[in-house]
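Shipment paperwork, digital attachment
Item: protein structure file
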Amino acid sequence: MNDSLEVAAQTGIDQLNIANFVSGDSINMVSGIGVAGDPIPDTITNSAFFTLLLLVCFMVYVVSIARTFSNTGHRLRELFYTSREVDSMGDTSDEKVFQISIISVNCLMLAFFSYCWATQKLGLTFLIDNRPQFLLIAFCSFVVYYVFKWLLYSGVNFVFYKGKENLRWVMVQRFLWVLEGIITHPVILLLVYFDLAIEKVAFFFIFVLVLLKIITFYKVKSIFFVQKGLFLQSFLYFCALEIAPLVALVGFLEKIVETL
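Attachment content:
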């Protein structure tokens, strides 16, 4: 009680309120004592759910790479050398499952990047309160984007090209998506957990995207447009099936932000 009286006297509480001060609990908070601490910012790393989700994604990422690593070197050579025969080392059913797993994880990583870009660069802090909804919708948007591209290529190629060419392209397309996921996943983890600058991540993504689009255009031309003098046709084919869906995806993400 003596300590409480001393604290009350030092903080300027008058005699009339000393009795009320010491009559309560022995531990009392007096206005003006101490310094208000800064609140802990609400980030993805503070959430146990999102931390667990990223950990599961990392485990799936590592296991999938380990199960598809034996065929990766052969697929990389196929990117720069196009045989006229159907590849005898086709993907097994297990490899296809793990490839789809990497692509799915990549869709979630791209959703995390979209959230970080919207909150850090666009200043859309209201998304913090709608984080689960935004990440879910963004993830579904990227999944629909890849499925739509696969259906679009399959439909167009089925009409205009032979089955052997279509089969070769399906394997190349799936491997390019897997390669994108393998490259971008570690960068997203650096962004989320080590505060890597969002500008550097965006520049890296643009570089990877441009590089993969160049390789895609090369493979499209070497598989479907073997004859000389068909550069314009191959370029229009590439723009219609690659650039147009990408522009539509960006526009759809902007609509998501406006809706939220």
